[in-house]
Amino acid sequence: MSKFQGALDRFGRFFIEPLFPNEVVSREVSAIDSECKKNLQDDNRRLHQVQKELANASQPYSRFSVGKRKTLHDSPTARGLSLRDMVVDFFTDHYSANRMKLAVLGQDPLDTLQRWVEKIFSKVPTRGLSQNWWDMPLYTEDQLLRQTFIKPVLGGPSLELQFMYRDEARFHESHPSWYLTFLLGHKGPGSIFALVRSNGWADDLQAGNYTPCWGSGLSTIDVELTKNGLVHYRDIVGIIFRYIAIVREQPPQKWVVDEMMHICQTAFRFEQKCSPSSTVSFLAGIMQQPYSRTMLLSGPCVIRKFDPDLIRESMSYLRPDNFRLTILSSEYKIDLIAMAHCHPCLEVSNPASAHMSSSRFILAQTVLEKLGTRSDIGHAWMERNLLMIPCTNTCLMPFETPATTNISLKLYKLNMRCL
What we know:
Number of strands: 9
Radius of gyration: 25 Å
Strand content: 5-15%
Helix content: 25-40%
Largest sheet: 7 strands, mixed
Order of helices and strands: HHHHHHEEHHEEHHHHHEEEEE
Structural class: alpha+beta
Shape: globular
Oligomer: single chain
Distance between the termini: 56 Å
Number of helices: 13
Strand order of the largest sheet: 3-4-2-5-1-9-8
């Protein structure tokens, strides 16, 4: 037996007859706890966890995605539960051959690799589990139209617009969302970034889409603000919505997609090689998506056709009644005046002085900021150093750019065809 064949056999045994010995489970809890502590001061992870905690509780996206000793060991033990039994139950409930994909990379002939895989992995039990799919919104109607203020550990001021979107895996031939991110994230003349940078409000702007879990998606616009940009964040949001309106007024432009096709094909052709472990990890994940088996490498990277109808549908998600606004800044003064939501990742300061209004909310340090000119702030749900406030029903009004602001937006290269 070759070394690689032996490694495949040992790997396959993890899913055929796992042991889950108590000492290994306990050791893994310690490793997870160390990783959680290491990331407590990471601004990106803190922001992501805050957004998850404030999402639809019915969505798996809202769950704590790491864990620590308190949640994985101390709390279950106090309730008389066995962690090993819980791990075994989770394995039985979620691991099934019909849900799993395998990618193998080796120097042996393909026929030999296939023979090894079939011999070893055909023994993985099939429990007939259905494919996971969560056809429910990431945010409820009450959770949209909110702005969140977060005090970062190290990061500078930034702004993020987050639109509730769809799962686009089935549209992989046209990737319609890329049309929007290509235009919104452009940095040439006539773009959002060109205008806000000329005003001294931003140092960078990025736009993108991702799928938190199967069945749903998010479209985001991130702006790295200057100190002056933080003061004018409402103006920046107004500019973004005006640009979106300009894009939506125009029919989808085929020449834009043609340029994107050329860029994607060039990037794919000259893509830098990854490590073997990264390659098989990427392919196993892609195989879970509805790509043609002959397009697993290029499918996530290349646009193959122009579909104006799907592009128009994707535009319909970038509406002023379908977004959330997040501001990261350490410039705000903090007052102990509002309710904060406590999640397992961030510890609560001053718990002794906290007044419990429900089983999920406590008082903590937060920052209040009114959205627009509306005087009644309404009910606000807080995270530590964080606040969300409902917008008015006519949610374009709070973001309207003052008439004195010089607006010079145009659709990127609408009448040009050269890079």
